[in-house]
Amino acid sequence: MQFKHISIRNFRVFLDEELRFSQNQEKNVTVLHGQNGSGKTTLLNAIRWALYGSVQFDQGSDSLPHQGEMARAHPGEKVSVSIDLSFEHEGSDFELHREALFEKQNEKDLTGEISSEDVSLVRQNGANQREKVNNPNTRIEQMMPHRLSNLFLFDGEYIDRISGADDRDEIKKAIQNIMGLEILERAIDHLKKVENRFENEVKQSGSDELQELVEKKQKKRKKKEDIERKITDIEESRSTLQSEIESIKAKYDQIDEVAGLSRERSNKEDQRSKLKTERDELTDDIKSEISTGGYLPFAMGAIEDTAKDIDELREKGKIPSELSNELVEELLQTEECICGRHLAQNSEAYQRVAAFKDQTPEGVDTAAIQLIARIGSIQEGRDGFFETVEKKVAERKEVNEKLEIVNEEIDELSNKIASASGYDPETDESPEELERSRDEKIAERAELKAEKEQLLQDKDETEDEIESLSDEIDSAREEEKEAALARKRMKTARLVHQDIKQSFQELQQRVRSWSNKRVQDTFSSVARKSNYAAHITEEFELEIREAIDDTEVEVQKSRGERQISSLAFIGSLVSIAKERHEDDSENRYFSGGIYPIVMDSPFGALDKSYRREIGRIIPVLANQVVVMVTDSQWEGPVEDEMSDIVGKEYTLEYDAGSGESYARTRIEPVKEVPVRGD
Amino acid sequence: MASSTSIREKYEQTSIYEQLVDEHEIINGYVDMFVFAACVGYANERFIRNYGGDGEMLWMHVSNKELYKAVAASIAYQHHNDPEALLDKELQLRTLAMYSAGGAELLESEFGDIKGDPTDAVLNYIQEWDEQNDTQRRDTLLGDIMSSFESGSSADNKAD
Predict the structure, then answer these.
(1) Residue A316 contacts by C-beta under 8 Å, 6 or more apart in sequence?
(2) Pairwise CA distance, residues A279 & A292, whole Å
(3) B107-151 pLDDT, tens per residue?
(4) In this predicted structure, which of A24-28, A582-586, A599-603 has the lowest mean pLDDT?
(5) What is the mean pLDDT of residues A640-665?
(6) Contact A666, A42 (CB under 8 A)
(7) What ranges in A335-430 are assigned the alpha helix state H?
(8) CA atoms within 13 Å, Cβ hemisphere of A113
(9) What is the mean pLDDT of residues A177-188?
(10) 3-class DSSP state for residue A596?
């Protein structure tokens, strides 16, 4: 899909406006400049409403009609809100028209109540042929599924959320959405219901024993669901707390007396996080050594005693040494048999003697020789174990010492911040108050983390109990034919459910791994720190890791790095969808598509260098990109990076209105497209 | 003789398996844990004749590592004092299972009460065991035995 043109009438601040999107392959970006409150988010929502009939405003009301038009209308009159969006999809041109009528309820009503909504889609066939598409909503859903709307029509907040501290669900959800696995998803949900239905049948008609087991299982499942709900709540609370901690940090940036101290503390916290990762990795290495070589010191006694005994046996001539092979080799080389006979090469006698060489001794003697042959490896293994472990323990000690120092430095900086003067210009809070609040939030997050770990453990245990109850149900004696049949069906539903769930997870991991590769490529092509790499982990977390020597250590993402990695992730999904769309094979479940991207304020309040990096990513995200920015976000590095690839450029001119007139925004084309170097 | 795929022995995955393998991942898997416990059991002369349990250890898994084969052969040979034990894989697995059960009990009493990650405690336990033994003398002796096999003369002669 590629947008061509949009006309907006009476949609919030837009009275009657239009714009044409750039479709130029070389200059695939359409830029809309607008100050805060000028209607950038409204324009994003206008596109969303045209496509899906729904909007997503994070702030304020969801009211759609232009207030001036509503004010002019009399009670009972209707105001029409409409959008015409034309686009090209797979070689055909389409015109989408969505219109809603809002009835004014009373004199003061500026919102209205929706009385009707209509949508039509027309396909242009050739020069003059126009064909009305039946079921326009379904057709749009096929062309650009609603579930994907967040990935292609998004604002800075979504970008933030994708790489949020505890938001692996967003990544998972996005991957799931791009894959379009709703068939499998529906099957999973359906099979769960089927299993429950048969389970209830078993409960009703089964023996007392079976009834009791099913009841127990249902209780356990309820318990598991409760635990899962609690875990979700905890994750949300932790995420909220993290955002609050971040916003305290942003407040410190506004207080001159502590801004530097806060930044220094953030750096130290990054350092601490790296050291902790390093320490954990060293502990993992020690564990791995214990696992592979820890048994050897305990085995040495048995090896030594056995080796001594074998040596004695050999001395008594009960076991041959490998000398015999050497003797055979010598006889062949000298071409003379032990009996003095000449051994002509390749002669029958030569072959017979050579055969002795290959003949490994059999039985006890073989086993004994093999054991002796391994003594070297056993000794090396034992020595290597202690050598490596001692080295790792020493390294870990060093890291722990560094950690102690960094912790002290952080404490010291925290004390300095708490006792500094100054106030947050917006809230009047002192650094002492902010610091107290921050400490409370950090402590609360830690408590929640511990609680979550306990819940995860409880969940594992409950899952084990459910599994063993399922086994007991499967093997319980059942005389009633009806109950036995229901049980059989229940089991089948469960097995199919498990199989499909597994396939679903495998597909999810496959797309994750494709996405991971692309995220790494995109991130490394723009990141300002060359030793930083972005990863989507197997747990669906968007991580940034720093390469230190041969290892990679996860680092705390700065806001800029978070935004870059999120955009790289979105870009990876867009390119995967496109690739799948162009690939005819293997598209049974995941057919992909070509989609434009519309983004509102992707630059946030980032510093220049990060804005430059994001400016570099944007044009490669999709075939067509629409970006909405404030002047301050645009000027400088972003303009430098993007001006060459901007095909269309507009400004959103906001007029607050006065007296009888209401606020409106005009979309004005920028007359001169700026050219680099001008 | 049974094939290596059919040789198997019962063993019990006691709580120390859960602690060291599942919970703290100090030992990579149950096979490694089984052998580790067997070596600890042998070193401390601790074995349980009537071992058993719900778990099943397959010889094919133990014999995946050459060094495990050498350890199994040595322990079986020493326990039964019979050279035939060097050949008998079933006997080797049975003997390992016996010592493994004893070793698991010992490990349980050493680390079972530790709250949190017992990695360092396990490491200390291994290091302390090694320090108690005259490693250098053992290394020399084993080196001599190997050389004697290579040259054909006995270790005792070489030492003279």
Answers:
(1) none
(2) 20
(3) 999 999 998 899 999 999 999 998 887 666 666 666 676 666 555
(4) A582-586
(5) 86
(6) no
(7) 348-358, 364-418
(8) 5
(9) 72
(10) coil
Query: Residue A291 is nearest to which of B28, B84, B141, comparing CB atoms?
Result: B28
- CB-based contact, A361 to chain B, within 8 Å: no
pLDDT score at A588: 55
User: Could you give the CA distance from residue A53 to residue A36 in angstroms, rounded to a whole number?
Assistant: 25
Who wins on pLDDT, B53 or A227?
Answer: A227
Q: How far apart, in whole angstroms, are the C-alpha atoms of residue A32 and residue A667? A: 9
A298:B141 CB<8 A: no
pLDDT at residue A391 is higher than 70: yes
* B142 to A291: CB separation less than 8 angstroms, yes or no: no
Amino acid B153: pLDDT: 45
Residue of A nearest to B148 (CA): A311
| pLDDT at A632 > cutoff 90 | no
Ramachandran assignment for A53, one of left (phi > 0), alpha (psi -120 to 50 degrees), beta (any other): left
d(CA B145, CA A231): 61
Mean predicted confidence (pLDDT) in A329-345: 72
Q: Which long-range contacts (CB under 8 A, 24 or more apart) does B79-88 make?
A: B79/B42, B79/B47, B83/A313, B83/A364, B83/A368, B84/A364, B86/A364, B86/A367, B86/A368, B86/A371, B87/A363, B87/A364, B87/A367
Residue A668, judged by CB atoms within 10 A of its CB (0-12, 13-18, 19+), counts as: middle
Q: What is the distance in angstroms between the CA of the first residue and the CA of the last residue of chain A?
A: 34
Q: For residue range A405-458, what is the model confidence (pLDDT) as tens digits?
A: 999 999 999 999 999 998 988 788 999 999 999 999 999 999 999 999 999 999
From CA B160, how far away is CA B17, in angstroms rounded? Answer: 47
* Cα A498 to Cα A195: distance, rounded to the nearest angstrom: 11
Cβ atoms A660, A44 nearer than 8 A: no
Task: Tell whether B139 is within 8 A of chain A (Cβ).
Answer: yes
Facing B86 at nearest CB: one of A288, A371, A382: A371
As given in the structure block, the two tokens for residue A576 are: 């995967």
Radius of gyration, CA atoms only, chain A: 35
Quote the tokens at residue A442: 């950090």
What's the token pair of residue A153? 């029509």
Contacts of A375 in chain B (CB under 8 A): 142, 145-146
CA angle A62/A65/A68 to nearest 5° reads 125
Sequence-distant (6+) residues with CB within 8 A of A158 are A150
Spatial separation of the C-alpha atoms in residues A24 and A98, rounded to whole Å: 27
Out of A42-46, A205-209, A375-379, B82-86, the most confident range is A42-46
Q: What are the two backbone dihedrals, phi and then psi, of residue A60, each rounded to the nearest 5 degrees?
A: 70, -165
- Residue A322 clears pLDDT 60, i.e. is over it: no
Work out the average pLDDT over A484-513: 84
Considering only CB atoms, B142 lies closest to which of A288, A367, A375, namely: A375
Task: For residue A133, give every residue at least 6 positions away whose Cβ sits within 8 Å of its Cβ, in sequence order, or none.
Answer: A94, A121, A122, A123, A139
- Asked if A381 and B123 come within 8 Å (Cβ–Cβ), the reply is no
Q: For residue A1, how many other CB atoms are within 10 A of its CB?
A: 18
Write out the DSSP string of A510-565.
HHHHHHHHHHHHHHHHH-SSTTEEEEE-TT--EEEEEEETTEEEEEPPPHHHHHHH
CA atoms within 13 A on the CB side of A45: 19
Q: If pLDDT is split at 50, 70 and 90, which confidence band does A296 have? A: very high
**SS in 3 state form for A132-189?**
ECCCHHHHHHHHCCHHHHHHHEEEHHHHHHHCCCCCHHHHHHHHHHHHCCHHHHHHHH
3-state secondary structure B80-137: HCCHHHHCCHHHHHHHHHHHHHHHHHHHHHHHCCCCCCCHHHHHHHHHHHHHHCCHHH
